[in-house]
Amino acid sequence: MTTDARSIYVTALRNTHAMEQQGLQQMETQVSRLERYPDYAALLNRHIGTTRQQLQRLEQALGAAGESISGIKETVTSVAGTVGATVHGMFQDETLKNLYAGYAYQYEQIGAYRSLITIAEAAGETAHISAFRQSVQEEEQAAQEVAGIIEPVTRRYVELTTSGDKADR
C-alpha cells in the first residue's frame, strides 16, 4: 500500500495536535498541585497559554487541509495525559518527577514540530510552516525555562521534605 506525502502530512498534523492536547492536560493537572512552587506554577501557566495557541495553529492547518482532529486519538491522548500526571501524584516526589517529564517532553515536542516541517515541505504544504517554526522556537524557550528551574525546585523540594513539611501539593 502506497501512501502519499499529503496523507503523511495530515497524519503528522493530527499526531502533533494529539501530543499538544496531552501535554495541555498534564500541565493543567500539575499546576493545581504546585502551591509550594510559585515559579514552577507560573512557568506552567505561561506554557499552558502557549500550548493553547499552538493547538489553534494546528487546527488551522488541519482545516486548511480539509481535515479535522481525530476524536478517538484526542480522547485517548487526553486520558493518557491525565493518567500520567495522576500516577506521578501517587509518589512522594511527584513534583520532581513531573519536572523531569516536562523537561523531556519539551524536546519531544521540538522533534515533532521539526519533523512536521519536513513532512509539510515534502508534501508541498508550506502555508503553515512559519507557524510550525514559531512553535519550535516556543518549545525551545520552554525547555530553557524548565532547565532554569530544575535546581531551584529541587532545592525547595529538599528543604520542604527535610523540614518534615509536605513537599508536594
UniProtKB/TrEMBL annotation:
Pfam families per UniProt: DUF892 (PF05974)
Top-level division of the source organism's lineage: Bacteria
SUPFAM superfamilies according to UniProt: Ferritin-like (SSF47240)
InterPro entries the record matches: DUF892_YciF-like (IPR010287), Ferritin-like (IPR012347), Ferritin-like_SF (IPR009078)
Protein name: Ferritin-like domain-containing protein
